[in-house]
Amino acid sequence: MKNKFTLFACNCILLMAMLSSCGGTQHENNIEYSLSIDSSKTAVDLGLSVKWAACNLGASKPEGCGSYYAWGETMPKTKYTEDNSNWYGVDYDVLRSKGVINSRGNLTARYDAATANWGAGWRMPTLDEIKELKSRCRWNWTTMNGVKGYKVTGPSGKSIFLPTAGYRSGIESYGRARQKPHKIAYSVDSSGGYWSSTAGDNSGYAFLFSFDSDYFDWFVTTNRDLGHSVRPVSE
Question: 3-state DSSP call for residue 233?
Answer without folding.
Answer: strand
